[in-house]
TrEMBL record:
Gene source species: Sesamum angolense
A Pfam family matched in the record: PPR_1
Presence of keyword Repeat: yes
Name recorded for this polypeptide: Pentatricopeptide repeat-containing protein, mitochondrial
PROSITE patterns linked: PPR (PS51375)
Amino acid sequence: MKRGPVILSAYWHKVFSCYFQPSSSRVHISFVCFSSYSSFGSPGLRSFPDYSPKKPSIRDADFVHRISTIIKQRRCEPFRRILKPFESKFRPDHLIWVLMDIKNDYTLVVNLFDWSRVRRDPSLEACCILIQISVAAKDLNMAQKLFDDFWTKTIIDRNTSVSQFLEKLSKDIDGLKILLKVFREFSEVGIQWNTMSYNIMIHSLCQSGNVREAHNLLFQMELRGCIPDAVSCSTIINGYCTQGDLQSVLKVVKNMQQKGLRPNAFTFNSVILLLCKTCKLVDAEKVLREMISQGIFPDNVVYTTLIDGFSKSGNVASAFRMYDEMRSRNIIPDSITYTALICGLSQNGKVAEADQLFREMLNTGLKADEFTYTTLIDGYCKVGEIKVAFSLHNEMIQLGLIPNVVTYTALVDGLCKQGEVDTANELLHEMCVKGLVLNIYTCNALLNGLCKSGNIVQAVKLMKDMEVAGILPDAFTYTTLMDAYCKSGEMAMAHQLLQDMLQRGIKPTVVTFNVLMNGFCMSGMLEDGHKLLNWMLEKDIMPNATTYNSLIKQHCIRNDMRAATEIYQGMCHQGVVPDENTYNVLIRGHCRARNMKEAWFLHKEMVEKGCNLTAEAYNALIKGFMKRKKYMEARELFEEMREKELSADKEIYCMFAEMNYEEGNIDLALVLCDEAVEKCLIDNSKGGRT
């Protein structure tokens, strides 16, 4: 690249216009305008852009009109002669107004500018106007010369003006790459940009998604002797946070600390938001504590971010802990804060508490929006309280709030789970009449309802209608249909759906495979179940405990405890952690096979891991020990079972009532008889009526 005066390259082909306020007066900078062609001599240059300088007074307008008229009428005469009578009254503003008046006559423009420049340096605004006129007239040599003067004489000595210029210019996304080339080119010819200018460029690159390039510019900034500040690093951190790149965020934070730069509130907020989005909530709270320890106090946004994160993860207790801390610091929660808490409570089935908080929010004067109502409606639908959900739906309409597709999806899903598929279908028609477009979630809710009601034919038709409407089935759609086929024993159809999924590039989830595995096992197709498990392992699709449990359960039912144990061992070998269901199924199987030693060992192991026995597993263990005449172990388990308020079966109550009666414990024997009547006879009677 040529050194010395700045050379305009072929890549200058965009319009840049910006305003900024230097200390004295408003200056308008109009950058050179080029078309999308790559060379100066290319045709198709843009015309002079729309631009209106400040309006002249009546006296000035008359003065400008006289000058414009006389130079047009006497254009062949030297300007120093025809304009001599006007020299004493001619001001920089007059030059701008006359240039705008004669801009379509390029010869007059150049002559007037030359005449004016002999007397005084033209203003920056006048230079920019002449650059634009030169480009429009295709006099690129003139534009080049003026542009060089523009940078070397005027802009370079004004760091603040340059920064403001870059800030305005960088908002043109299409011109950002060009601007970056300019920025670097001018650095190479010795122009020293200040920190503010670098920060503007870094911010613009991050805003456009070019965070890596912004980070590289930060390194170049240091190499050129310009010291980054906290804003420089925080902007990069926020950029990486927006992209979800936690590792890069941590590197920049570490580098920032090494340089002795203290993170500001913006830095902490960005990191906390990213950690919450990636479900690293413990780390997010640690950052909050670090923030407070450095004397930077969090605001409503930070606490609401954490509350929302904890709520979505199901940790409602921690969400309310953050809420209480927020209130203790006199930080007022807003409607977003309340909605996050309502969402957390609703998702955990605590709709009564969610409704109470909702009313508290309204009592404080805050207004609920569509999202708040939809969150509460979804909560009521999930617990089966459809009437309350529709009552809230009507309430929001009365307030002028418009239910959206998410609201209707929640209602459709709630109706389908109650078996009211026809009503759900009517609601879908109402949605369409209101102009709302169905999405995959709405259709899946209805499809799930059809499958649950055993109407597989209609469910298949719905899936085909979805595709015609441009709503492509997803993994949930296929899994729901597969589950329906499996439960009806149509395993060939279920397996075919899996093949269709794979052929269409739809990635099955582990739930998909579990549905198919359970179907094979329930249909007695154990060989196919084992083939499916082996295929999953070969394809590096990691099964979970539910996958293995289906196979273990079926082998236990067949009293093949050797095979069940082998599957259990293979499960542990793959690093899959057994769950409560795994232990309970195995314990019941071993008890049935009279392998009490293995059953007791598994019981101890599950207790150590914090798992709980089901009533069925307790019953199996107790009966097993009683048959082996291990009365102490049986009694211990029976008392443990009673403490947990689990119901033993009638046979066990009778055995222990008789045992206590024979031992002389008449009162306890009578208590056990009462419990047997209450929990076995009365409960069974109720169950029979329902």
